[in-house]
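Section 4.2 – Deliverable D4.2 (structural model, holo form)

The reporting period included a commitment to supply a predicted holo structure for the target in complex with 5-[(3-aminopropyl)amino]pentane-1-thiol. Inputs used:
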Amino acid sequence: MITIFSEDHRLQDGKAELIDGKLVPCFEMPKRAEIVHARVKEVGLGPIEAPRHFGRAPIVRVHKPDFVAFLESAYDEWKSEHGDYDALPLNWLAPRMRRKLPERIDGKLGFYSFDAGTPITAGTWRAITSSANVALTAQAKVANGERAVFALCRPPGHHAGSDFYGGYCFLNNAAIAAQAFRDGGAGKVAVLDVDYHHGNGTQEIFYDRGDVFFASLHGHPAQEYPYFLGYEDERGEGEGEGCNANYPLRWGTGWDEYETALDDALATLRRFKPDALVISLGVDTFKDDPISKFKLDSPDYLKIGRKIAGLKLPTLFVMEGGYAVEEIGINAVNVLTGFEAG
Ligand code: SS9
Ligand code: ZN
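Output (structure tokens):
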């Protein structure tokens, strides 16, 4: 399997996030991608190639242009007002306040974000456009006939919506790639999100569309971030009615319960008869993940890969979360080798 990877991910190297009432070093760190990259080499998964540049057009197919322009200039605006250190938002709209874009950067950060864990740094724009290019380069290879390609994206993307960022995500790499499949002629695309957290951004982007099915297995929103989306009764709307499937799972979920939900999600996607499959590949479902509460173990990721291969679809794997840094390489690459064996 070919892997697409860029060193530019290192340009996103935030100092701190606000979590559990404390400013702590960012869990979403460059080392994550380095460990996955090293594991891809170690197991000899296949060639590792650099991304091509696709420019803004495929990005604004899923994100609003004003949001993308905000991401591009946010750090400079912040720096000229506050100085050369990471930008974090601190206030948001409460219900029935007015969604009107403020002039000052502090207000804009709150307008376009939904948490205080996602710093915008000097290198963020270059890192996130590079991450999107990694996904698009891999997508193009799958569209051109590769059975499966691994987009080793960083930063991740599945929490980013059409006009908001958060959850360490700025541009939604998986959604951008899914849309690129459609724009390249695929009639129907399925996105399966196996990250521990609900892919609220991807769901928002495709919620009213019948051409892209979104299925997600994740920590139950009653217990888990991002809390305000991801329930089972969210089934899509309008043209998209019936094209969204959520599998909220409680803290402590281990392989047996996970497998039941995964089998159901895969059967649902099979009935949709997609032409291509995008996997939002998070491995923060691991038992030792520092911010998550599922109990999957490293061999379980081989089984996930094997089951995904059973759909027999052209498949794009897009790296998302996973914060047990020492094991992230083994776990992520296990999904890929399980797929190849399946
Ligand atoms: C948990 C706080 C979670 C954001 C997590 C984003 C994961 C992206 N107490 N903070 S895959
Ligand atoms: Zn996650």
